Amino acid sequence: MTHRVPNFKLVSSEHLTVMPDNIHFSSASLRELGARYSETLRGLSTKK
User: Fold this and answer.
1) 37 vs 47, more confident
2) Is the N or C terminus of the chain more exposed, i.e. has fewer CB atoms within 10 Å?
3) Alpha carbon of 34 to those of 3, 20, 38: distances in Å?
4) Contact 39, 10 (CB under 8 A)
5) Residue 10 DSSP SS3
């Protein structure tokens, strides 16, 4: 999908910690996921 749809990217949740409810991530993992999103978005905005 990422190579068929322009400006479409996926961000991995690999190695993030899930809370006991198996739905939500821990606070630290949410911060890490946010950092991954941020890095991906910056990469999109710098491509020409």
Assistant:
1) 37
2) C
3) 23, 21, 6
4) no
5) coil
Which of 5, 8, 4 shows the shortest CA–CA distance to 43? Answer: 8
Q: What does the domain layout of the chain look like in residue ranges?
A: 1-48
CA distance 10 to 42: 13
Per DSSP, 19 falls in state P
Beta-carbon contacts of 33 under 8 Å, excluding residues fewer than 6 positions away, are 11, 13, 16, 25
> What pLDDT, on the 0 to 100 scale, is given for residue 43?
86
Residue for token pair 């991530």:
25
Helices (H), the chain: 27-46
